[in-house]
Each structure stands twice: as C-alpha cells, then as structure tokens.
C-alpha cells in the first residue's frame, strides 16, 4: 500500500496539528503516512490578511496541491477555510474541537482589564480589532502578521504590550503553560466561526477504502454540527475576512445553541443573536439539520438588527 500523503502549510503550528492528525490517520488506516509541506501566498506575504483576500489566502495553494494529486488529503484550521464549496473537493472529516477561546498574552501579568492606557496590543484579525476597540478604546491596536513565535516574541522583546491569539494554537504548540495567558470567555468575547477545529479536505468521490475508514474514525459529529452552524452564519454574511463576526455553537441538554455577533470595524456598534434548535436525534444527519435551522434564524436576526448597515459584508441568498 502506498503511503497516505497529508498536505499542510510549513509553519510550526500547521506542522504540529497536521502531525497529530497524520498519526491518527496512520493508526485508523493501518498505513504509512507522509507529510507534504506546501508554501502558500499567505505564508510569504507581509500584507494585512484583509488586503490579501482573507481566509482563502492560506487554503488555495493547499487545494491546488490536492487537486493536482500531490497529496491525498490536506489539513486546515477550519476558521481559515472559506465557506463556499470548492469544485472537486469536500471536507472529509472534522476532528473533535479544541478550546475555541482567544487568549491575551501580555507582559508583566497584565490582563485585558488592567493593561495601561495606550498599551500596544497586536492582532491581524478584524474581529479581534473590533472587540478590543469595543472593550478598551484607549488601547493602541497594532496590525501584525507572522507565526505564533514571532508574535509572542514581539511581547517578550517589548515592542508590544500584548497579543491576542487562539488558545487552540498555543495548546497544540505546548505554549499555554509557558506564557500563562488570560483566557477570554466566549460569552463576552466570541471567536471566529470554526475556531479551535480542524478540517480534513479530500478530493470529491469515494476515497481509498483505508482512507475512508480513517476519515470516519476521526470525524466528530458534535464538532461537525456546531461548526457547521457557525460557518453557515458566516456564509450568509461573509465578505472575505473583512466582516468582524464572532460565533459559537454548543450542544447541551438536547439542544443545539448558536450565538453570533457582528461588530462594526471600530467596535462602536454590534448586534447579537442567539437561538436554539432541537435535533430529532443525535445522528449526524439530524444534528446538521438542526444546524441549518438555527443558523438561518440567527442570520435573519442579525440582518434585521442592521448588521449589514455598519459591518463590511455582502448578503447571499
């Protein structure tokens, strides 16, 4: 049997999370696995993400490699994957989600509440910019790029007072205990749709039997349903990554809950909607049906609340 080739970006975080998935694929498939590194435009450019075209900037080169047959599957951070269908490719599995929260990594033990006036806080995310400006308009929010180590290094070196990062990324790199960050709770600081989750993308059509078995083994139905609900809201409201949108879905007490918030870029305005749906059962099909239902109602609420009037987005049917 030929090795199963797993495509990934070459950053430390991408390699860490891909290696975890590759090991699980190898065990479930009973096959050797080879990791194939792919360089994307988002990895080489220093321009702001919003000007590069948003989430798809990290996905396009990986997808080209998969379609060209250079690998058999690719691993994405789900929050970086565009919501539109991509001809010839499908999401084959969504493994169990890690921590979906953001964290603040600050010098001298500062928290978001205790950072001094005028403190320089770095982020490359329009959503995080809007949230920072909403909660702490006195801060100096600095647009930054680079991998996790580069961003943290700017705090250690004193160029920045703090950075905002994803808890899942720090966890996968083993850095949560090293930097002792402040966890920003989802109730007050919702994160990007799909944050904390990974997506395994494969070519359309039935895959090799061993790979098919492995994908089924690592898929997590609750994660698939909740991230589907979040991403369906984004699909209706998205304009690349220029629209500051936070969303969080969860399954609890027999219900699928979804809350989403849209911010104006300056953080001065926001609109929030929360709804719940009752799945007929906890089968994957019924969970996805509930995700469709709850996301439609949340999206309608956001639009009727004026989200399109103050946030950069386009509305799709």
Could you name the key traits of this structure?
317 residues, 12 helices, 5-stranded mixed beta sheet, alpha/beta, 13 strands
pLDDT < 50 stretches: 49-53
Radius of gyration: 19 Å
**Percent range for β-strand residues:** 15-25%
Strand order of the largest sheet: 2-1-3-10-4
Task: Report the span from N to C terminus.
Answer: 45 Å
Helical run tally: 12
Largest sheet: 5 strands, mixed
Regarding quaternary structure, how should these chains be classified? single chain
Indicate the overall shape: globular
Percentage of residues in helical conformation: 25-40%
- What class do helices, strands and sheet pairing give? alpha/beta
Order of helices and strands: EHEHHHEEEEHEHEHHEEHHEEEHH
Description:
This protein is α/β, with parallel strands linked by helices and 317 residues long. Helices cover 36% and strands 23% of the residues. The chain contains 12 helices and 13 strands. It has a 5-stranded mixed beta sheet, sandwiched between helices. The protein has a 5-stranded mixed beta sheet with strand order 7-6-8-5-9, with helices on both faces. A hairpin with a 2-residue loop joins strand 11 and strand 12. The termini are far apart. About 2% of the residues have low confidence.
State the gist of this model.
By secondary structure, the chain is of the alpha/beta class.
How would you summarize the topology of this molecule?
Layout: E1 4-8, H1 12-29, E2 33-37, H2 41-44, H3 49-52, H4 60-67, E3 73-77, E4 89-93, E5 102-106, E6 120-123, H5 126-135, E7 140-143, H6 148-156, E8 162-166, H7 167-172, H8 176-179, E9 182-184, E10 198-203, H9 209-218, H10 221-237, E11 245-252, E12 255-263, E13 270-277, H11 284-304, H12 307-310
Parallel strand pairs: 1-2, 1-3, 6-7, 6-8
Antiparallel strand pairs: 3-10, 4-10, 5-8, 5-9, 11-12, 12-13
